[in-house]
Amino acid sequence: MRTLFYYNWQIRDEWFQVLEQVPAIDLLRDRHAGVGSILKTIFHIIDVEYSWIRVVKNESDITFQFEDYNDLKSLRNLSEKIRSEIKEFIDNWSNDMECEAVIPSWMDKTFNKGEILRHILVHEIHHIGQLSIWSKELGIKVVSSNFIGRELLERH
Amino acid sequence: MRTLFYYNWQIRDEWFQVLEQVPAIDLLRDRHAGVGSILKTIFHIIDVEYSWIRVVKNESDITFQFEDYNDLKSLRNLSEKIRSEIKEFIDNWSNDMECEAVIPSWMDKTFNKGEILRHILVHEIHHIGQLSIWSKELGIKVVSSNFIGRELLERH
């Protein structure tokens, strides 16, 4: 499971790089699908990941406001700032935590920690798939979503 | 890892159901992104999954032609037909197979079986994310990509 977090982060960073060449107006344009714009999609990925990670860490939720991160640089800084905290948790994840039950503050429902980690993983891959459609409209290079060829299993 | 295969299959089947209400012409329309049309995307998911599964099973590749499966019913039948074979393999997957090396017939490169299984998983989630964008254009319900709430870990 750890490897898929590294996969997501590597791809997210490649998107940050590719999107640097896109004018802010195109990054902010409402595309009437998904969560709206390209920047809102990336914000949503980061926000959702962090909220759920706080849940599995048994810590209270910290919410971010899109208005505070509505440009590529701020989003990238936010992503990098919280990644070290998330990475530390993921690197120390052990399978005996899989079935520990938690209740997120915003839902009246119990989940297993293993279930939540998988939810975070598929959530990002799903939304990155949406970016790949929009990138065609922008005429920019699509970041490869291939898992193979990234040598992720060898490294971590 | 097994659970994420079940996640993908559950969502694929929900898409088959939702897409039943969409006229064939809309399913076949080239959307100038991803691999083209909605049907081509689903065909691509099934085709890629099966080709890589054959690789990890040390079996020769079987290729499908889109022209033979260019309607929803044929694709659904193909998906169901090969699923029992794939499911049997996935259900009997063990972690000691992770590092077994294989070379696909269409590439001059060695991969580990664990790497390939992850590749299959993220490949489908990525392309399903693309469908979610196009479903808005069609005005149909988007299939939820949530992992939580599907009770997948309890069942398998």
TrEMBL record, chains A, B:
<dbReference type="Pfam" id="PF05163">
    <property type="entry name" value="DinB"/>
</dbReference>
<keyword id="KW-0479">Metal-binding</keyword>
<dbReference type="InterPro" id="IPR034660">
    <property type="entry name" value="DinB/YfiT-like"/>
</dbReference>
<dbReference type="GO" id="GO:0046872">
    <property type="term" value="F:metal ion binding"/>
</dbReference>
<feature type="binding site">
    <location>
        <position position="44"/>
    </location>
    <ligand>
        <name>a divalent metal cation</name>
    </ligand>
</feature>
<feature type="binding site">
    <location>
        <position position="123"/>
    </location>
    <ligand>
        <name>a divalent metal cation</name>
    </ligand>
</feature>
<dbReference type="InterPro" id="IPR007837">
    <property type="entry name" value="DinB"/>
</dbReference>
<comment type="similarity">
    <text>Belongs to the DinB family.</text>
</comment>
<protein>
    <submittedName>
        <fullName>Putative damage-inducible protein DinB</fullName>
    </submittedName>
</protein>
<feature type="binding site">
    <location>
        <position position="127"/>
    </location>
    <ligand>
        <name>a divalent metal cation</name>
    </ligand>
</feature>
